[in-house]
Amino acid sequence: MRKWIRFGTPFILIFILTSFRYNGSPELRVPKSLQVNDLKEVDLPQQKTILVPTFIVPPFVGSTFIGFKEALAFKESRGNYFVTNTFGYMGKYQFGKGTLDLIGVKDGKDGFLKNPALQEKAFRTNLSRNKWILRRDIKRFVGKRINGIEITESGILAAAHLAGAGNVKKYLRSYGDHDFEDGFGTTISYYLKKFAGYDLTGIDPIKNPTI
């Protein structure tokens, strides 16, 4: 009996183990509605600009000339080269026809709006012109306070872009009693404060500059 158990036990164990052998994972089936039978070519966008205008923020590029002009352009037109406002002011920096005539722009409204490079030249040229006209007032008033606002060169030149150099002279020399207001209610004092502290030493004052 013991002999039978000794020789029979291995066969019994083999039988038990083989009856419980692993048969692998169950077969996974993809629903027919999700099966892909034919391959199709798909056109992907290439070199396309995607704009997500969730909200608009002004550019922050420091206190340099570039920072000044971009901040001013954002206030004037949101930086749009191709816009004309309800009063007829044109482009990124909202130039009037009279100012463009003074600096030698003869392209007409459509030509001016379609030419961003010309608009940039016009802005710098007019800045040089205003800096010449206001050179004595810049020297006299920079560092002083008028109506609680510290007067800076960049504030003066920004206000001149808004109201013209003549109106800025009147404001400064009247110590704020003569405060110009444009058609949208924007004042010289607002521009003096908003655009203070930019470095415009690289802009030369030029008498009667033209493009």
TrEMBL record:
Domain of life: Bacteria
Family annotation (SUPFAM superfamilies): Lysozyme-like
Phylogenetic lineage: Bacteria, Pseudomonadati, Bacteroidota, Flavobacteriia, Flavobacteriales
Protein name: Peptidoglycan-binding protein LysM
InterPro entries linked: Lysozyme-like_dom_sf
